[in-house]
Amino acid sequence: MSDVALSVRDLKTFFYTNRRCNKAVNGVSFEIRKGKTLCVVGESGCGKSVTAAAIMQLLPTLSRIEDGSIVYHSDHGDIHIERLARNGSQMRAIRGAEISMIFQDPMTALNPVFTIGFQIAENLRYHTAMRGRQLRDKVVDLLRTMGIPLPERRAGEFPHQFSGGMRQRAMIAMAMACNPKILIADEPTTALDVTIQAQIFELMDRLKREHGTAIMLITHDMGVVAELADDVAVMYMGNIVEAGTVEEVLRHPVHPYTRALLTSMPVLGKGKNQSIEAIPGSTPDPFDRPPGCQFAPRCPYRVDACATMPAETHTTPTHRTMCWRYEELAADGA
Amino acid sequence: MLTYIIRRILIIVPMAVAVSFLIYLGLDLTPGDAVSHMLDPTRTVDPEKLAELRHALGLDSPLIVRYWIWLTGVLQGHFGYTLTGGVPISSLLVDRLPATLELSGTALILSTILGSILGTISALRRGSATDNVLTVVGMIGVSIPEFFFGLVAIVVFALNLNWLPVGGRLLPSYDSYWDHIPNLIMPALVLSIMMTAGVMRYARSSMLDALSREFIKTARSKGLPEWRVNLLHGFRVALTPVIVLVGFRLPILIGGSVIVEQVFQWPGLGNLFVSAVRNKDLPVVMTIALLSVVLVLTVSLIIDVLTAVIDPRVRLGA
């Protein structure tokens, strides 16, 4: 267990709106390994972001962690995050210092009325003993590390004076300020240009190598997964339908949904006439879910057994899936 | 920014002139003049004498001429004399202006601070009993006219409980701000009720808007304590629209002070204004009107500069 930074066991997070319950995350288990990147992929609304928010205890007020455990393996022993008070002092000591997070849109995620330097320094002020000159130097140093030119001047500027890519770099500087063990990135490049995307991922990959930071990257881009991931978890309607190392999941996908995701994107070099298959149908209404396997109504391999929820089954010690027909599909090959 | 401020100050002059002309025109369109108000309606007066009096007061010249005489006088610093008593208007202003500034200023500061605090509390505890009570109280504050509050306050606190004086401002030999406080409490509170309620509702929605933004989540994700997330990151962003609102509400404060000064017999400009309008004392009405026009224009400039100072995204002069 020593190489695991965070383990999530059977996490259930439900939303309560208008007296109805949306089981946004319905029994999810995974581990984030130290110094490795875990990519969580899935369509919008599958529970990726909710899982991330649950780890940080940053869930909206109408939702709560219903069941399961989130254990952070700190240097000083294990901490059960789900047992901590939402905004209590213990949770705050972890946020920003041990586990930090960057968000989708760096424009709205930065406060428009404070300077970039101030917002980065805030993090250090609450988690370290740094003050004054030392604090300023550290902020400039962080900005420089993140590849922001003229960091001394840029620290005194406001978010609206930064370009999208520079803002996200500043966000990463803020998240990395206290050298956290885990960095959660919730679709960090969705709001950015494709060329900038590559730079941001390169930066994150470098930080992972240099600082040994474990990264949980939420994305819906399979190309990014192939590029960056060590481990992959594929989510669908609140469950992890398939998880394993990047090799296992991308080369030998066993779950029909993973396969569908992989065939739904074009591959460079295959020419213009390659068949890109869209997944038929759409995601079910979260308040009116299918009884068994959530993917069954859209699944080409559907059988009668799919009316009950399949259990999680390991095909190898690291590769697991939730599908009744995984053996046939595995034998069938990709 | 400096050139912008200078330009804005220069614009105030033509705007004040234009507005003052419109007011002059409007007053001229109302029936009667100062002379007709001086007369005892039960006696008949020789029309020739009336014409003589009108000529002496300069009321028989055409509108444009009268306006021009008034305007050139004001631009040279002469506000003229009251038509009814011949008192220099400038000395009236020296008497009355401090009283009004004292009242409106106190009410403005009171309502801004109180409104922001209550609105913030309301937003932070949204949906709670506190929020609901404040919402209802706010609605009452906005919808019930000030003179009613004033009269109720006089009946309760002055006549029945005997805690505070009924009205007036100065007792002989008491003339510092602190000496006025017992007299000031009721009119200032009554005057600030409506504005407090308005600021509170606005601060609440502005605060709720700020708290729903992504950067609040970022602030929380840094491990900052709740007070800092709400009051520094949230309130600071929510503050800008509130300040703009307070600026634009200032004319209401001046308008309200006319009524409140009447109710509490506060010897300010509002009181003077009402009697001047009744007597068709044009120079006095015009002077006070001009003063409020200049005040409103100046305040809107100050608000603009202040907005640029607190919100780095706003740049002046573009």
Automatic annotation (TrEMBL), chain A:
Any single GO CC term annotated in Swiss-Prot or TrEMBL for this entry: plasma membrane
Location(s) in or outside the cell: Cell inner membrane
UniProt record, GO biological process: peptide transport; transmembrane transport
Chain ranges of the ABC transporter domain: 8-262
The keyword Transport is annotated on this UniProt entry: yes
GO MF annotations, alphabetized: ATP binding; ATP hydrolysis activity
SUPFAM superfamilies tied to this protein: P-loop containing nucleoside triphosphate hydrolases (SSF52540)
Pfam families assigned: ABC_tran, oligo_HPY
Keywords: ATP-binding, Cell inner membrane, Cell membrane, Membrane, Nucleotide-binding, Translocase, Transport
Membrane disposition: Peripheral membrane protein
Classification via PANTHER family: ATPASE AAA-TYPE CORE DOMAIN-CONTAINING PROTEIN, OLIGOPEPTIDE TRANSPORT ATP-BINDING PROTEIN APPD
Family: Belongs to the ABC transporter superfamily.
NCBIfam families xrefs: oligo_HPY (TIGR01727)
Protein name stated in the entry: ABC transporter ATP-binding protein
Organism of provenance: Devosia nanyangense
Automatic annotation (TrEMBL), chain B:
Location(s), subcellular: Cell membrane
Similarity field: Belongs to the binding-protein-dependent transport system permease family.
Membrane topology note: Multi-pass membrane protein
Domain of life of the organism encoding this protein: Bacteria
UniProt KW keywords: Cell membrane, Membrane, Transmembrane, Transmembrane helix, Transport
Keyword Membrane: yes
Domain ABC transmembrane type-1: 97-303
Pfam families the UniProt entry points to: BPD_transp_1, BPD_transp_1_N
GO annotation terms (biological process): transmembrane transport
Protein known as: ABC transporter permease
Chain ranges passing through the membrane: 9-27, 103-124, 136-164, 184-203, 237-264, 284-310
InterPro entries for the chain: BPD_transp_1_N, MetI-like, MetI-like_sf
One cellular component term from this protein's GO annotations in UniProt: plasma membrane
